[in-house]
Write a structure and sequence with these properties.
Blueprint lengths: L1 E4 L5 H10 L4 E4 L2 H10 L1 E5 L5 E3 L3 E2 L7 E4 L6 H10 L4 E5 L5 H8 L5 E7 L2 E3 L4 E4 L5 E4 L7 H8 L3 E4 L3 H22 L3 H26 L5 H7 L8 H7 L6 H14 L5 H14 L6
Parallel strand pairs: 1-2, 1-6, 2-5, 3-10, 6-7, 7-8, 11-12
Antiparallel strand pairs: 3-4, 8-11, 9-10
Helix pairs in contact: 3-4, 6-7, 6-9, 6-10, 6-11, 7-8, 10-11
């Protein structure tokens, strides 16, 4: 059995694909969300996968011994880890943004078949509960030690593009180093990356230099020019910027504060990152998290 913890844009899509492929899937949610999904099922709209409507079993606790996919946002991770540990899972694949969460995952789940990777997809669940996928499918990247585990094999069999790449830290930084600058810059200007460049090109360059330095110190050699080339062009808006427009901080702590904290750990000054994070919070009228 595969337990998918969380049913947002990533978890809901993965659960629907696995069910469609014939896998035994349980979606694990908080009581309110569990009742909604039990009543309405999971509905997907995608150019790649078509329109799907599945009704997988729903639970509020992880079934014992199952294979677990963790797809909640980082700020919801601590709430689900004790329940996952209590279920003694046979395998865990955590698909969150960022890098600093991995230590908490391994501390709570010390078994040998526990790994952190990431999912790449642009998807969102609307007020009606429909998950719309705007990219050409979803891709999942896992560290090399998880290459032959059951979870990646099941995902690949369900039509997910699965890649294997190096150590866990290298995998996590592969996404984090491109996501964090994109998310922070678009949130800072409440617009796309070209708008950020027009506002302050020197600040953009300094921020990329700082992110590259932290990534290199923490496990993935990176240069600012590479990060610059990874930034999306006109019109692209990050999910963090969208969350801020809705009045929630979303993953600002994971994508901003965590980078600053990592910089301090390695003795790397991050004035541009600190300014951008501070000004984002000032713009949305929120105080820094402590």
């Amino acid at each position: 059995m595969i337990s998918v913890v969380g049913a947002g844009g990533v978890g809901g899509l993965l659960a629907a694909l696995l069910v469609t492929a014939g896998e035994d899937v349980t979606v694990v949610l908080r009581p309110g969300s569990a009742a909604r999904v039990a009543a309405e099922g999971l509905r997907i709209r995608s150019r790649t996968y078509g329109d799907l409507h599945v009704r997988p079993p729903v639970a509020t606790e992880v079934p014992e011994g199952s294979i677990v996919l963790i797809t909640v946002k980082e700020y919801g991770l601590d709430a689900v880890l004790p329940g996952i540990a209590a279920a003694r899972p046979s395998e865990v694949l955590c698909l969150l943004n960022g890098v600093t969460h991995s230590d908490r995952v391994h501390a709570a789940l010390p078994g040998p078949r526990v790994a952190c990777g990431f999912a790449s997809v642009l998807s969102a669940r609307d007020e009606a509960g429909v998950i719309t996928v705007t990219t050409n499918g979803i891709a999942v990247t896992v560290p090399s030690n998880a290459a032959f585990w059951q979870a990646p094999r099941a995902l690949a069999g369900a039509g997910v593009s699965v890649a294997v790449h190096g150590t866990e830290r290298e995998v996590l930084w592969t996404k984090y180093r491109r996501l964090a600058p994109f998310a922070l810059l678009t949130s800072w200007v409440d617009g796309d990356v070209p708008t950020a460049r027009r506002r302050d090109s020197a600040l953009v360059a300094q921020l990329l230099t700082e992110v590259a330095a932290v990534a290199t110190a923490d496990g993935l050699p990176t240069d600012p020019a590479t990060l610059d080339g990874l930034l999306p062009g006109p019109g692209a808006l990050s999910s963090l910027a969208t969350d801020l427009r809705r009045g929630t901080e979303g993953e600002l702590r994971q994508l901003g504060d965590a980078l600053v904290e990592l910089g301090r750990t390695y003795g790397i000054a991050t004035p541009a990152l600190e300014r951008v994070v501070r000004e984002i919070r000032e713009r949305v009228g929120r105080r820094p998290l402590g």
